[in-house]
Amino acid sequence: MSTAVPPVSEATVNEAGRARSTRIGIGLCLMSMFVFAAQDGITKILVKDLPVVQLIMVRYWFFLLFALCFVHVKGGLGNALKTGHPWLQMSRSLIAVFDIMVFGLALRFLGLAETHAIYAIFPLLTMGLAALMLRESVSSRQCVAGVIGFAGTLIILKPGMGVFSLTSLIPLAGAVMFAFFSVLTRKISLVDSFGTNMLYMAFWGALASTLFGVPQWVAPSPVEAGLLLVLSVSGVIAQLLLLQALKYAAAVTLQPFNYSLLLFASIFGVTLFGETLQTSLVVGALLVVLGGMYAFKR
């Protein structure tokens, strides 16, 4: 006697498709965070002997090449050049250059884990700046999350305990810059397209870094030149992975998985650079991550 198989509803099929798409997006996001962490490890090696601005200059020229190819495919250079905020485009691009410079400087003096643990406060800083500059509403839950993240940052910095280091303020300054960059990007994106934002960021970044980078150029060794090439190419790969991830899953879904960058950076720091994860660093980092996840929870 045969048993009838109940038909599968269209809603069930759609739900299964969305779940599969979300899993793919999360996987691509994790891959991009891994590549970003590996990039920072390479940067930490290179900044020992090469100027930070030189690394930024090489990366930005690769980024500009990628941006030109991207806008060519997505509608042409003419369309991408049209912007409603030319001065804001320049400002956010220059902020991005200085942010990367500060982050590279932090890696010269601090470990990967410590740098990323302090820098991870930037989503909560962005939330606060968006409320002040863009008049976005902030819920009571997000306020609580901000307090949790701030407490975690204080635990890492340990001010007033006799072990505070001024170098710990370097990644914090970078986090503030990236928060401003994020808020300006949010404002500009209401008018300009993604391709326009990318093109202007790449152009102004390449121009500014070249002006500062050429006078400080130091001839790299063959090994350093190879690492520079890997650093530049991997940057494009990481951006492509993240772009693809956002095609498969919503940004709010991927937000918690962005914190995997801290995990990967800590693993690289311990295994490759012999870093020690102090209790205060681990506890503080967990609070920062929990605060960020709580703030952006659906």
UniProtKB/TrEMBL annotation:
GO terms for cellular component: membrane. Its main location: membrane. Residues 24-157, 172-291 form the EamA domain. The chain crosses the membrane at residues 24-46, 52-73, 94-111, 117-134, 141-157, 163-185, 197-219, 225-245, 257-274, 280-296. Pfam families: EamA. InterPro entries: EamA_dom, EmrE-like. This is EamA/RhaT family transporter. It is a multi-pass membrane protein. It is found in: Membrane. Keywords: Membrane, Transmembrane, Transmembrane helix. It comes from Pseudomonas putida.
